[in-house]
Amino acid sequence: MSIKHSGKHYLQMSYRIKTLGFSSIVKTVMSLFLVLTI
Predict the structure, then answer these.
(1) Is the dihedral of CA 21, 25, 28, 34 positive or negative?
(2) CB-hemisphere CA count at 13 Å for 25?
(3) How does pLDDT run across 5-36, given as a tens digit for each residue?
(4) Nearest one of 30, 27, 1 to 9, comparing CA atoms
(5) Could you give the CA distance from residue 13 to residue 9 in angstroms, rounded to a whole number?
(6) Membrane spanning segments where (predicted)?
(7) What is the pTM for the complete model shown?
């Protein structure tokens, strides 16, 4: 396992975590918005 490969894997992991975090934030904001509008 080369350093290049592990670095690429780390980038993919961090990117996935970022996208998951962003989607969860969007879901939270949307649910709060729905609660406020009702």
Answers:
(1) negative
(2) 6
(3) 787 888 888 888 889 989 999 999 999 999 98
(4) 1
(5) 6
(6) 20-37
(7) 0.50
